[in-house]
Amino acid sequence: MGENYYDILEVSKDADEETIKKAYKRLSLIWHPDKNVDNQEVASEKFKKISEAYNILKDGDKRRRYDLHGTADERQPQMNPHDIFNQMFGGGFGGFGGFNGFHFENNFGFNININGRNFSKNGPQPKKQNSPDKTMEVKLTISEMMNGVEKNIQVIRKVKCDGCGGCGMKDRNKNPNCGSCDGVGLQRVIRRISLNEIMQQTVTCSGCGGSGKIIKEEDKCTECRGDKFVQEVRIISVHIPKGIKNNECVVVHNLSDETEDSISAGSLIIRFIEESTETMRRDGYNLLVKKNILLSEALTGLNIIFKHPNGENIIIESDEVIKPGSRYKIKGLGFWNKEINNYGDLIFDLEIIFPETIESNRKELIRKLLPRRKQESIDADKFKIEFLEDNVKNQKNEKVDYSDDKEFEEYFSNLKIFK
Question: Which of 39, 111, 164, 200 has the CB geometry, 3.0–4.6 Å to 221, for a possible disulfide?
Fold first, then answer.
């Protein structure tokens, strides 16, 4: 029998009709002879197999016959000697059908999957086109997300050893097949299950652990020490567009780990993560900034310089009385939104810094300047309030001493909120 139709289309045996259709479209485009001018003979054969597999698996009746007998022909094929094993275990033998970790395919080619490893009496299974994709995360600062950047990223991946070509041996022509299983990776054992009955069972080879190969220490490649793969460290430059969002991805093809059972490497998916700070973070396409201001600024007017992540210095002005927890915005100074071809807003959360203590003479001055609560003349007990520690829990406001005008002015002139 030829190759397994499911393997040809690179789908699982329980794949639905839509998955099979998508697989056919993808593979037929890759292997169409017209797109492989330099390799038409191989491409034509591959394209023929893909079409044959799809023709069978898209048809419910043909697929059922194929799953049951290993062929879509209505005439059942003759029994293959190796199918005895599948009959015994895959067909419901007494109470022994379905051993843990085993999956059997009734395709007369003695294809077996044990704990995720594929074995075949007819030789190695066909290689997959690409290895599995790989994902890595890269942090971006607020400035990088806002302005865009050409960023150098270090990529660490597994590649086949150049010294041995991925075979793990000094001599590439030497046969490393396990002597216990002759390179199959499986062993057959006979177990007695009653006085008159015996059971033949196929298990992972104890000599090679199922790999089918044993590389002696003296035969191992000096570069990879028999591992077949080495670690490659590469620096790549990735263009990051302005306004990129948190968790947005860039795909770099053929930069995943290489594997033994694939022709080429899969894609590297780079996911970008926002690196926010205590004072700046992103909210959609808006930039949120937490800014500490003085009590005097909150009462008499604000005029401070803010260094914007786009590299510009901007002056923030306000003549209004600013209340605690106030939020203000400047339109068009947020992140670029390519969907509407416009920028978001810059939003300030203003936190007022209150003095720790005030001298009595200053208190009198404040009482004269600011409105006071009208006192009511009633008989009542007086209580002095105490400071509650929870008031400052998780607060990181700067402390300011207002006791001396000179110190106050010096503080104001050297105020730096962003460090």
Answer: 164
